[in-house]
């Protein structure tokens, strides 16, 4: 039997089956990247719900696996050399799972298209949409300058992805980890109640893309894992 006792996180979130991938996450746009990828790839895994409160994400056990105190994080008991490996940061997890299985990462020139758009999401779409969402919905006080800045940048980024999707079903050739990274952040506009302010419906390529993404059975399942409602 696989022994994961060297990982302190297993003391707070004990594995039922230490022989499968252990996922520590919460269903945010970043969190569901990992669960959707695992579902799409058909890899066995055990999800552990990590609520976003400081008592969880800043606990010594979670920090031992994810020193930046962010979800998702993961342990694969069957790492590249056959020994367990720990991973954190969603784009690293996506790339790892893709390379582990040889799927969803693109081949030849398409591999670098996937990596470009994966990097675009990590460096631009996620951070800017997240800041926009904070200032338009979650901030305790309104900051007009911040709202204008991030709404403007969100519109620009939405235009970038809408143009990329013109005549394409998926962002970088075949369905890939780039789509798994990007689509959940576009879908977050619903939660942020920001669709109208960035003129979502006029971006027809992006609208159709998100609908297409969420019609996939693996996405439908992975989008609520780990389930915060139990």
TrEMBL record:
The keyword Transferase appears for this protein: no
Keyword Flavoprotein: no
Keywords in alphabetical order: Oxidoreductase
Entry-linked SUPFAM superfamilies: GST C-terminal domain-like, Thioredoxin-like
Domain GST N-terminal, residue spans: 18-105
GO terms assigned for molecular function: oxidoreductase activity
PROSITE patterns found in the cross-reference section: GST_CTER, GST_NTER
EC number from the UniProt entry: 1.8.4.-
Record-linked InterPro entries: Glutathione-S-Trfase_C-like, Glutathione-S-Trfase_C_sf, Glutathione_S-Trfase, Glutathione_S-Trfase_N, Thioredoxin-like_sf
Domain (GST C-terminal): residue spans on this chain: 107-230
Protein name: Disulfide-bond oxidoreductase YfcG
Gene: yfcG_1
């Amino acid at each position: 039997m696989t022994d994961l006792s060297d990982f302190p996180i297993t003391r707070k979130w004990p594995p039922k089956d230490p022989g499968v991938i252990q996922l520590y996450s919460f269903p945010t746009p970043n969190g569901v990247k990992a669960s959707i990828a695992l579902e799409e790839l058909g890899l066995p895994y055990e999800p552990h719900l990590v609520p976003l409160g400081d008592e969880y994400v800043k606990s010594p056990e979670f920090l031992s696996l994810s020193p930046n105190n962010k979800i998702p994080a993961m342990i694969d008991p069957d790492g590249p050399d056959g020994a367990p490996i720990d991973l954190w940061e969603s784009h690293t997890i996506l790339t790892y799972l893709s390379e582990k299985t040889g799927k969803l990462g693109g081949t030849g020139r398409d591999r670098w298209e996937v990596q470009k758009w994966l990097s675009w999401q990590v460096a631009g779409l996620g951070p800017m949409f997240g800041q926009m969402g904070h200032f338009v919905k979650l901030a305790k006080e309104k900051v007009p300058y911040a709202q204008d800045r991030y709404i403007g940048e969100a519109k620009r980024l939405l235009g970038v992805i809408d143009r990329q999707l013109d005549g394409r079903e998926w962002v970088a050739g075949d369905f890939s980890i780039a789509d798994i990274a990007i689509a959940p952040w576009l879908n977050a506009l619903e939660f942020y109640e920001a669709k109208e302010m960035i003129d979502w419906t006029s971006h027809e390529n992006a609208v159709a893309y998100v609908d297409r993404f969420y019609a996939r059975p693996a996405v439908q399942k992975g989008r609520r894992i780990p389930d915060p409602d139990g």
